[in-house]
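Page 47, continued from p. 46.
Same chain as before, 273 aa.
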Amino acid sequence: MLIRAALAFLLLLAPVARAQPGGAADAVAVAIRLPEVVEVLRQEGLDYGRTLEAQLFPGQGGATWAARVATIYDAPRLQAAVLAAFRKALPPAEAPAILAFVGSPLGRRVVGLELSARQAMLAPDVTEMARQTWAAMQEADDPRVAALRGFAEDNGLIEVNVANTLNANLAFYRGLVEGHAKGFDLTGAQIEREVAGQAGAVRSEIADWLFAYLALAYEPLSDADLAAYAAFGRSPAGRALNAALAEAFDGVFDRVSHDLGREAARYLAGPAL
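Result:
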């Protein structure tokens, strides 16, 4: 079962913000528009809730299931949890360099491209269009293909997303087991083997989505701008930002996935009240 929340760990940059009372991490969170990132993930989560119902208990969830999924993905609660985790994960010493980059003209442009592309890909037709664009780029041996692959590799985007997605899937299965879901009477070792067996499919789906997203988001950037952005990602500040985002989202969305599993367990033997 693929939890797409883990696909959030891209640098989502924004104009530099004034320092916030909470300190350096709060200033960075405002600068990268963290609440808007979480809102996109919430929308993806609501969509995923509908997918879970269709896969596990078609037609049984209805309005009650939708309401429970919405509670799990409550925006203020998620935003507070992600911010608290991000505060712990971001080294304060790197904040000035991060804020300097996101306040640059390139940083201001990149945030608009990244966030708008992520929002647009909430629509299946846009996602399919982006996939077709990426496929056409590969077929034409477009030089941008190598640049985007290098960008993903330098920033560890596939590896971190695979690891965090598998962690989320582990949490989901554990929630099913704890909720006594029918047909999911598994030991911890069995859950781990089941999820480990998903690694190949998870990697393929993440790569498929990720490169479509990168192709869409960065299409307007010049080669020089993309290279400069990639250089920031390789810098200590860029690596610290990516690592802090990955850690923050991983912990929060593992709990979300666990809660989804426990709620789903209530429906697997029939309609839940």
